[in-house]
Write a structure and sequence with these properties.
The complex is a heterodimer of chains A (274) and B (432). Chain A has 274 residues and is mostly helical. Chain A is built from 14 helices and no strands. Chain B is built from 17 helices and 12 strands. Helix content of chain B is 46%, strand content 11%. In chain B, helix 16 packs antiparallel against helix 17. Classes of the chains: A mainly alpha (274), B alpha/beta (432). The interface between A and B is large, with 59 and 54 residues.
């Protein structure tokens, strides 16, 4: 009986794994096949990988797009982590009467879909372009700036700060550490797992961000990876092998970062539930 | 402590400068902005089709204007719509191109919503040089805005080998209506086991083709009044569609990828679609000689039904920003008046235009061995002149979505009149 239960659990788990891994499998296999074979649903690796690589490199500048995406994602992650953790820390550690009201208003901003903010935001950047073109429309900075603070990340840091042992701060104060010092020398090192989880979330959403970069970036030189992939599929007769190859390349960085930080990620997420 | 803060601060500064600098260098090159750019910026979507056409046009134009510079920016069609909508509704001209390619079905909503953002080109092109349906699609109240690019003139692509097996030739497909074609389809399926055609239930292209061939559209001539309940061609098209489904002659695909697969693997016997589909058919070289193109069947029991219709097709529009004069000059001297250029378009990439002098000068008299020596481009241009003129109006895709649901009700056994009546009501409430 026990055995039967075990076996059925494993069958379900194996089934679920196959279902979740299949898209990756298909993506990788398809990147080695001709477009016609991809549409035909061929599931065996082909011999077209080199041709696909050649076609990809000759049609688009994927190196530039990777670089753009990397600059945007890394800058966003560093800045967002710093700003959001300072805010989350402040909300939890310091006392103020208005604190909860401000925090609730902040949370409400999570309810506004980005599509509703897009036109006013674009208008703002249009004005900024006239004053300071280096952070205006069609610059990488214009992609970074609106995504630095997100209500979600502040909320995430505040929730995790709840289980931060505040006695550490008091001990620090007694030893004469400044308020900023408390944050940088005590809080950050203690909250490493939270930072790792937040870094993964921010990096991934920035790496995959589509709508805002699409609207605000104009020149091919500034194109990010998702925009590049979208334009590869725009043709009336798209080359699916090449598209799949581009998707493999686009997926690698996030996959690597996830594997690298996975341990911390799970710990960080668990923390936010506790 | 201070050291660490300093380190962090400098790290952030470096990253920020890195992020800004690549934008900065763009400004220096002057390519980031349609307003200030050297040369003309264009948004278009298919590197093998309309972007290639632009390159050919650039070459032709450069012969006379050696200093001319064209910057083509490639974006998916939906992305162009999104970008254009955001830019125009925010009232910011920064980053807009000088020229944008817009599909004929969609353009009226842009022209009506942002009338001052587009540059009127009336008088710059000779209207009588283009097929009338195309001018109707690119103009508002006799004001011309678009320079026509390609025609979406439709034909019925058929597998001659399957037809032959069932005892038919392409002669049997001339001047027939859909009921007769369905009978032929039943026979073909009986003999070869292949379905007659394939369609995506969520893509109403085929219905649009059918109703335009009957001289009708979702809206009346004003482009706004919803025309569903009393629309005879639409009713006839719904009946044809149901008949195709009920007789099990319609294979179903769910995206472009599967459509190509169905055609290239030979699992269906025909496909009624726009002439721009030709390269996709020819992608499967092994089927060379097995295809032909015939006029689409007409709608049964509809007065004035024709064998000509349109699917897709797009035109160039000039935005009302600095550089518009140069943009207009580029478009009118190539797409607007150059017959030899149209010949290059068809020989190099199979794009069929709507420029009548090019048709008269024999630009399209090219026999194609893939289609058994048929002069398909010539046929398409002939048919394109017969396409009934309709006003595509402002809401084509919105009404599409409503009718797609209505079709499901009808296929599930609903009464046609009632189904269309409720679609009409829904469309009226949804669209003001």
């Amino acid at each position: 009986m026990n055995n039967f239960k075990q076996i059925s659990i494993y069958i379900i788990l194996i089934g679920a794994s196959i279902i979740s891994v299949f898209p990756f499998f298909f993506m990788i296999v398809s990147s080695t096949n001709k477009s016609v074979d991809v549409s035909g649903g061929k599931l065996i690796p082909g011999t077209n990988l080199l041709t696909n690589i050649q076609n990809l490199l000759s049609t688009v500048d994927i190196g530039q797009a990777l670089l753009n995406s990397a600059i945007i994602a890394i800058t966003t992650t560093v800045l967002a982590l710093l700003v959001a953790s300072l805010a989350g820390y402040g909300f939890e550690i310091y006392r103020s009467r208005a604190k909860d009201i401000v925090f609730n208003i902040l949370l409400l901003s999570m309810m506004i879909p980005f599509a509703a903010l897009m036109v006013p935001l674009f208008r703002m950047f249009g004005t900024i372009s006239e004053i300071a073109p280096i952070i205006g429309i069609d610059t990488l900075a214009s992609v970074v700036i609106p995504t630095i603070t997100t209500a979600f990340l502040i909320f995430f840091f505040r929730q995790n700060t709840k289980m931060f042992p505040k006695e550490l701060l008091e001990a620090g104060r007694i030893d004469g550490v400044s308020e900023l010092g408390l944050f940088f020398r005590i809080y950050i090192p203690t909250m490493k797992t939270t930072y790792a989880a937040a870094a993964i979330i921010t990096f991934m959403s920035s790496w995959n961000n589509y709508l805002w970069p699409l609207v605000v970036l104009q020149t091919p030189k500034n194109q990010t990876i998702p925009l590049l992939i979208s334009s590869l599929g725009s043709s009336y007769s798209p080359d699916y092998g090449v598209i799949m190859l581009a998707i493999v390349i686009a997926t690698l960085p996030t996959a690597l970062i996830f594997f690298f930080l996975q341990k911390y990620f799970v710990a960080g997420m668990m923390g936010s539930i506790k | 402590m201070k050291k660490r803060l300093l380190l962090l601060a400098s790290l952030i500064t470096i990253l920020f400068i890195a992020a800004c600098s690549s934008g900065d260098s763009d400004e220096a090159n002057g390519t980031s902005n349609g307003n200030e750019a050297d040369g003309i910026t264009v948004w278009a979507w298919d590197p093998k089709f309309n972007i290639k056409a632009l390159e050919i046009a650039e070459e032709a134009y450069k012969a006379e204007n050696p200093d001319f510079q064209l910057n083509v920016i490639e974006n998916a069609q939906d992305d162009i719509v999104q970008k254009l909508n955001t830019s125009l509704s925010s009232g910011t001209t920064k980053g807009l191109p000088n020229i944008v390619l817009i599909e004929d079905y969609r353009v009226k909503s842009f022209l009506e919503a942002y009338p001052d953002s587009f540059h009127e080109i009336t008088g710059s092109i000779e209207v009588s040089d283009f097929t009338p349906y195309k001018i109707a699609a690119t103009s508002i109240d006799d004001k011309n805005y678009g320079v026509p690019f390609d025609t979406g003139a439709t034909g019925l692509y058929v597998r001659t080998d399957y037809l032959e097996e069932a005892g038919y030739t392409t002669e049997d497909l001339q001047d027939i209506d859909w009921n007769e074609y369905i009978e032929i389809g039943k026979k073909v399926k009986e003999v070869t086991g292949k379905k007659l055609l394939t369609n995506d239930h969520n893509d109403f292209g085929i219905i649009r083709v059918l109703i335009q061939s009957g001289g009708s559209w979702y809206t009346e001539e004003d482009g706004v009044t919803i025309n569903i309940t009393d629309n005879e061609p639409l009713k006839a098209a719904f009946k044809v569609y149901k008949e195709l489904v009920d007789a099990d002659l319609m294979a179903v695909h769910s995206d472009w990828n599967q459509l190509l697969e169905a055609i290239n693997s030979g699992s269906v016997a025909s496909i009624p679609t726009g002439n721009w589909f030709t390269p996709s058919i020819k992608a499967e070289e092994s089927q060379s000689g097995n295809w032909a193109v015939v006029p689409i069947p007409s709608l049964p029991e509809v007065e004035g039904a024709t064998h000509a219709s349109n699917l897709g097709g797009s035109s160039w529009y000039v935005l009302n920003i600095d550089g518009k004069e140069e943009a207009v000059d580029f478009l009118t001297s190539t797409f607007g008046s150059n017959a030899a250029f149209y010949q290059d378009l068809v020989t190099e990439m199979g794009a069929v235009g709507t420029y009548i002098p090019a048709m008269e000068e024999g630009a399209y008299e090219i026999s194609d061995d893939y289609f058994g020596g048929q002069e398909i481009y010539n046929d398409f241009t002939k048919w394109s002149e017969e396409i009934p003129e309709v006003n595509y109006g402002l809401h084509t895709y919105a009404i599409d979505d409503i009718l797609i649901v209505a079709m499901q009700d009808y296929l599930n056994g609903g009464d046609l009149d009632k189904v269309l009546e409720s679609a009409q009501k829904q469309a009226e409430t949804q669209i003001k």
